[in-house]
Amino acid sequence: MASRPPDVAKETQAYLPDFCAAGAIFVVVLVSVLIAIVLTLASHTTPGTFLTELAKMSLFILWLGLLGAAILCQIRPWVEKFGQTQAFVIAFVLLELLSLALAEIAFQLTGIFGEAVIINDTHGGFILRTFAISSIIIALAMRYLYISSEWRRSIVLEAQARISALQALIRPHFLFNSMNTIASLTRSDPARAEEAIEDLADLLRANLGAQKDRTTLKEELEVAAIYQRIEKLRLGERLNVRWNIGELPMRALIPSLTIQPLLENAIYHGIELLPEGGEVIVTGVRNGNNLEIEMRNPIAADRSAHKGGNQMALANIRQRFELAYGGKATVSVEETDDEFRVKLCFPYDEHVV
Amino acid sequence: MKILIVDDEALARDRLSQILVDSDEHDVVGEAENGAQALEIARESAPDVVLLDIRMPGMNGIETAHHLNSFESPPAIIFTTAYDEYAIEAFDARAVGYVLKPVRRERLDRALERAARLSNITLSEIAKRSGISDLREHICAHTQGEIKLIPVRDVFCFRADQKYVRVQHRNGEDLIDDSLNHLEQEFADEFVRIHRNALIAVRQIDTLKKSSGGQTLVTLRDGPQGEDSALIISRRHVANVRRRIKER
Asked: Which of A190, A329, B49, B175 could join A346 in a cystine, given CB atoms 3.0 to 4.6 angstroms apart?
């Protein structure tokens, strides 16, 4: 089934980093000072004047760096519209012009301050040197930003692909079986058929609308509950689900489409293959700033005939947790002869970070 | 035509019988919710066609079909499936009767017209494509008009006995039609040949010893005990049996 890839937060899609942010400014200052130290060390020859030289150098480079950051901060929304390569070219040219202008101003200022600040070079020489050094450094910086933006984009794209793949993955079997159930109910029990169609519609809507990376626990659990109702029609007494989730804060955020696929796995690989059926147990625990959700389902003793398949959805969930929480979340799996367990541990957030 | 419906989902069975009841040509002789029940009903009511779901708990549709094939006059089989994209390729390639869920009347009618007995090779292919193991989990014995399903894990040994193969298992002994060579191939992971006329379950091997006549004998853990019941391992199979014991 075709579905649009979900829209991922704009921030990760931007090419240039946000230079208005305090973190970025700090890095600019740090890098400027480091460059000043390197340049002073390289050119310094007269003993006893290192610190003065460094101060002068830092003053100039910090001036350039901070003004550059301010410019990038202002032009970013505008320049992003041109596309990746153009954005970097425009930023490079603007910074280059800025450095030339500052070099010119600095040279003129030395005339006013006289002895205090001396540039031991001709006018043209100073401008040329400044231009050469700043070109190299700005080019390197742009290259670095370009690569890291490429890297971020590739991660995002990969994640989108996985979500789409997951959406495609959960459908066919379930969808056609449900349709068959509904076809059967339309004659024998029209009222239940009606409910089933409404449930199926809600479930499809939730799936098609899963463009948000994360959703509230409440919504995610509702989707799972609808899924459970539809499967219950099909499997009858064989399917039971116990939800021990009173402890979970319903406002908490969770990557969308996690609980429902896990329940789907538990039914498809567990309950459905047991002649007597069984009970899926979902337990939610709040552990300080962490939430834990565990899903357990019985499995047929001889599963050799039905191995494989559930790894895909699990790998998907794992990758999306990694993307959303970057190492602060775990997805663990435990399998015994007669039981399968998946446990999600993730930080308790109420707002998208 | 006499038709038997097999599906683990009640509503899926209802759907098929609703459609079949509408047409007067067919007669639903029974409904089963699992493979074992299907074999039981099929033996009693001898349907012409069995509508068989593939994915069922316990004994899946493919294994059920294999057992149905072992009947004296086997019924034709039509598989019903929701979405086994690879299996469907196999169905199409071999022009096998299958209907997709949700079941459409015309499709079912067409499949019923074409209903034919499936070969075991075809079944294996479909099993492979559906990601279902083609290994049987049961051995099917026909005794005095009755069907007996013996779980493979309960079997100690298979011994060729004239025209038949004798199965010794946890609950006694039965005769089956399968050939020893075929059983050896199908259950190669769990059974080992010890003699021209015998296969034993590797996990059942208790002790190996030499008889006074210099023959190697094996006793089985849960099999009949005592001197006389030890089985002879022929010389050419001894090395292989020892290797299998080490590997387990």
From this structure: A329
Rounded distance between C-alpha atoms, residue A275 and residue B23, angstroms: 32
Paired tokens of B57: 């708990």
The tokens for A64 are 């350039």
CA atoms of A315 and A92, how far apart (whole Å): 41
Q: Look at B12 and A233 and tell me if their CB atoms are within 8 Å.
A: no
Q: Looking at chain A, which residue has its C-alpha nearest residue B153?
A: A302
The C-alpha atoms of residue A320 and residue A326 are separated, in whole angstroms, by 9
> Which ranges in chain B are annotated with CATH 3.40.50.2300?
2-129
In this structure, the strands spanning B27-32 and A330-335 are unpaired
The whole-number average pLDDT for the span B159-184 is: 88
**Domain map of chain A by residue range?**
10-161, 171-347
Spell out which residues of chain A touch residue B58, defining contact as CB-CB under 8 Å. Answer: 275
Instruction: Look at residue B166 and give its three-state secondary structure.
Output: strand
Span B84-136, pLDDT tens digits = 777 777 676 666 788 889 989 888 988 888 776 677 777 777 777 777 777 78
Question: Which of helix, strand or coil describes residue A296?
Answer: strand
The answer to whether the CB atoms of B85 and A173 lie below 8 A apart is no
pLDDT confidence bin for A210, thresholds 50/70/90: low
| Count of pairs with CB atoms under 8 A, one residue in A, one in B | 72
In this predicted structure, the answer to whether residue A352 has a pLDDT above a threshold of 90 is no
pLDDT digits (tens, 9 = 90+) for A63-93: 889 999 898 888 888 887 777 778 888 888 9
Question: Is the distance from CB of B103 to CB of B17 less than 8 angstroms?
Answer: no
Tell whether ipTM is more than 0.95: no
Domain with CATH 2.40.50.1020 in chain B: 139-247
Q: Which helix (H) or strand (E) holds A345?
A: strand A339-347
pLDDT at position A124 is 83
Say which CATH topology domain B2-129 has: Rossmann fold (3.40.50)
Radius of gyration of chain A, Cα coordinates, nearest whole angstrom: 30
Mean pLDDT of the region A47-63: 84
Task: Identify the CATH number of the domain defined by range B139-247.
Answer: 2.40.50.1020
Residue with tokens 């830092």: A58
Tell me if B131 and A308 make a contact (CB, 8 A cut-off). yes
Instruction: Find, in chain B, the residue whose alpha carbon is nearest to that of A188.
Output: B14
Distance CA A282, CA A275 (A): 22
Q: Indicate if the alpha-carbon torsion angle A34, A36, A39, A42 is positive or negative.
A: negative
Composition of chain B by helix, strand, coil, percent to 5: 35, 30, 30
